[in-house]
Amino acid sequence: MRIIITGGAGFLGSHLCERCLSEGHEVVAVDNLITGASDNIAHLDSPRFSYQQQNISEGIHIDGPVDFILHFASPASPVDYLELPIQTLKVGALGTHNALGLARAKGAGLLLASTSEIYGDPLVHPQREDYWGNVNSIGPRGCYDEAKRFAEAMVMAYHRQHGIDTKIVRIFNTYGPRMRLKDGRIVPNFMRQAILGEPLTIYGDGSQTRSFCYATDLIDGIYRLMLSKENMPVNIGNPHEFTVLEFAHLVQELTGSKSELQFMPLPEDDPKQRQPDISRAREILGWEPKVELKEGLTHTLAYFREKLGVA
Ligand code: UDP
Fold first, then answer.
1. Phi/psi zone of residue 33: left (φ > 0), alpha (ψ -120 to 50 degrees), beta?
2. Annotated catalytic, 144?
């Protein structure tokens, strides 16, 4: 297939480029590099790979045939989308509209990278795909949550009205190499702080929970979803749930760091608990995560040590 990956120079986008190339496809990565980095794709020197710098919120221009669009362009860290709320809303709304327009024009399928954030601060636990969520539209996270909710609605409208073969993956917290050192999320923050011997910053009392999926596991779920016949949303994530405090202790243990814990205010609307129900992914895709947190964190730690120049 000839596959377009929007956000192709981002954390997940670059892993998807790699996976699609290794499966023999032709890949065109599109990114405007506001949170992505050309470093992430610099090693992909296959003749089947190309990169175009475009802001997909303004339009997407691709010559030639397209079989599938993996639509991953968006800021995705709370720190990023707090700094870029308008760009986040535009890429979720206008970028998604443009990606669907391209899919329609080329007769291609499209997979939307959606998110566990569409469940907001969930009142149902664990989160199943049929839960509608608890989102504060006007809160600081509203720019991301509502953009992705709109994107899901837009994707379903194109599926229903134009018969486009669309997929929606709801991605839960994911970590691995190529996350930006300072993207502000818990994994890069704790890793960087532990490696440099700085205090680990715990927001709130650390009792809030998250479930962490290693990047290659997530990419495998997404790849299977792309090839499937499924058009309704599928959660992809690791159901093993930890409190933030437990996670901090694990990072301390793994890094052998003497970093202390520093408690800081909890950001507004920070979800209190999050764990994917992955029954649908198991049934429909025969998928479940394989990489244990300790193993995934060990690989990720090696990446961050190298980035920080600390052996
Ligand atoms: N968090 C934290 N310290 C940090 C960064 C994040 O305690 O330095 C907490 C944050 O409040 C949230 C969880 O870790 O409860 C996951 O945050 P992240 O930004 O990684 O992503 P989110 O799941 O909120 O989108």
1. left
2. yes
